[in-house]
Amino acid sequence: MQIFEKTITVSKDDLDQLNHVNNVRYVQWVQDMAEAHWLKNASEDIRNSYFWVLVQHTINYKDEAVLGDVLNLKTFVSKSEGITSIRHVEIYNSKTGKHLVTSETKWCLMAINSKRPTRITEEIVTLFQ
Questions:
Q1: C-alpha to C-alpha distance for 57 and 73, rounded to whole angstroms
Q2: Alpha-carbon gap, residue 58 to 60, rounded angstroms
Q3: Do the beta carbons of residue 87 and residue 75 sit within 8 Å?
Q4: Comparing C-alpha atoms, which of 86, 82, 74, 78 is closest to residue 36?
Q5: Looking at the whole model, is its pTM more than 0.70?
Q6: What's the CATH fold of domain 4-127?
Q7: How confident is the model over 13-31, as a mean pLDDT?
Q8: 27-39 pLDDT tens trace
Q9: Contact of 19 with 60, CB cutoff 8 Å
Q10: b/e code 104-120 from CB counts within 10 Å (16+ = b)
Q11: What is the pLDDT of residues 75-97, one digit of tens each?
Q12: How far from chain centre, in Å, is Cα 76?
């Protein structure tokens, strides 16, 4: 399985009224990671033929992050079958190594021309192995 990683630094805009990262921001980062991984791996032809729709999202908050923390975000696809794919995103504090967030999302592949679910091609499966 291929792991895609990104490092970010927590900014003031990421914080809630308790001065730690807002839960909604984590959800945004999970979506951003999925999109970045797709854009990095999928060719222009594939991106012009298909898009993903989020079907289910589970997120577990294990610890907090605060202003200035450097976070390591990792994502990978664990399963692609039929029309759906399971993606995981893990977020760690880069300095302490603490595991902050775990997310599992289920995505459905859609054909751009019909706007309907479509089977995941072998070519797409191999992009993330």
A1: 17
A2: 7
A3: yes
A4: 74
A5: yes
A6: Thiol Ester Dehydrase; Chain A (3.10.129)
A7: 96
A8: 999 999 999 999 9
A9: no
A10: ebebbbbeeeeeeebeb
A11: 999 999 999 999 999 999 999 99
A12: 8
